[in-house]
Write a structure and sequence with these properties.
Layout lengths: L2 E4 L2 E4 L50 E2 L8 E2 L11 H9 L1
Antiparallel strand pairs: 1-2, 3-4
Amino acid sequence: MERVWKDEWSYVVGGKQGSLEVVAPEMKEVRWERDYDEVDHFNDEQLNPHFQSLRIPLSNNIMSLTDNPGNLRLYGKESLTSTLCWAQKISAILN
């Protein structure tokens, strides 16, 4: 399929359906030096900033490094991609 550029965005000519093959743009390869350990034993008091969720910061109401030292404990609420915290809102309404 053919690709065109409009306002610095790439568009596929011919519709919105997917394609098995797409011509990649010619770009210079960029490499970043790793500045973090590949293994985390969760022994620090703060979570490595390379850990993240997509929409909600990983705070103490979602995770803990102290409940079980040496482990990362995640608390079930909404999914990590959700912007809502229904468990907290319902609790606040009922109390």
